[in-house]
Amino acid sequence: MKDILTSRFVEEMRKTTANMYRLGWDERNGGNISYMLDEREVKEYLDVKKVIREIPTGFNAMPLAGKYFIVTGTGKYFKNVDADPETNLGVLRIAADGETAQLLWGFKDGGKFTSEFPSHMMSHIARLKVDPENRVVMHSHPTNLLAMNYVHELDEKKLTHTLWEMCTECIVVFPDGIGVLPWMLCGTNSIGEATAEKMKDFRVVVWALHGVYGAGKSLDETFGLIETVEKAAQIYMLTAHLPRLNTIKDADMVKLAELFKVKYRKDFLNLD
Ligand code: 13P
Ligand code: ZN
Question: Which of 79, 125, 176, 253 is the one with CA 20 to 30 A from 260?
Fold first, then answer.
């Protein structure tokens, strides 16, 4: 059996959490990640018959039964993942009944998966129906996007349109736009259900006055998605109080979307 600390997935989790921390998106225990793993790859590093602990999921995750995930721990700091992955991360499998997570590695101090586990697992279920290659759900508190929540209308069309206007490539990176949930109590099944409902249509979902969820095929892609939204929010926050002299026109966004052949939310543009 190979050492799991040398695995591609642990390495990627260490690098991604360190980057997110470095960018100031994930203060203290802010943010969480779940990454669905391939059984064959997990078996290279772990005896999958050896369950360390069983942790109740708190909801029915039956559509993910038998699936493996590496997940950040609740109360754990992204800042500390790189130095001590075995305490701050866990590898688990959803049991056949969908009611239990079987811990195979990690959470060494007796910890458990993120309090946002329902939102993560329910989002995986929703995204896999739209994109069978989806593997990652990522939650974060990016500074400028959060700041924007206080000064910009939280309407999906208006927020998406403003962000698309901020960088030329935004419409190409998130052509499906930004879903928005009103402020809700986090760490609950209800916010999980609401997030998953939005994930049917959007790969990016803003939790008003809290943060953002992103979904994608890899850690890199999902990180890049949130990074692009956050960059657009930063340009907005740097310019919102200044007179606007120039902007990217909707007709130009259509040209971009057509050139890059992305399926975009036409109804989020103002075309006549
Ligand atoms: P956890 O520490 O439980 O992952 O929670 C962090 C967070 O961002 C809650 O929304
Ligand atoms: Zn959060």
Answer: 125
Residue found by looking up tokens 């130009």 in the block: 252
Residue 272: band (very low, low, confident or very high) from pLDDT cuts 50, 70, 90? confident
How far is the centre of ligand 2, averaged over its atoms, from the C-alpha of 242 (Å)?
31
Of the options 1.10.490.10, 3.40.50.1760, 3.40.225.10, 3.40.1190.20, the CATH number for the domain spanning 1-113: 3.40.225.10
Residue-wise pLDDT tens digits, 167-195: 999 999 999 999 999 999 999 999 999 99
Catalytic, out of 116, 165, 227, 230: 116
Residues for the chain: how many in total? Answer: 272
What residues does each domain of the chain span?
Answer: 1-113, 116-272
pLDDT, one tens digit per residue, over 70-100 is: 999 999 999 999 999 999 999 999 999 999 9
Instruction: Give CA–CA dist 128/231, Å, rounded.
Output: 27
Q: What are phi and psi of 213, to 5 degrees?
A: -115, 140
Q: Quick check: CB of 114 below 6 Å from ligand 1? A: yes
Task: For ligand 1, say whether the CB of 28 is within 6 Å of any of its atoms.
Answer: no
Is 116 a catalytic site residue?
yes
Interval 113-169: pLDDT, tens: 999 999 999 999 999 999 999 999 999 999 999 999 999 999 999 999 999 999 999
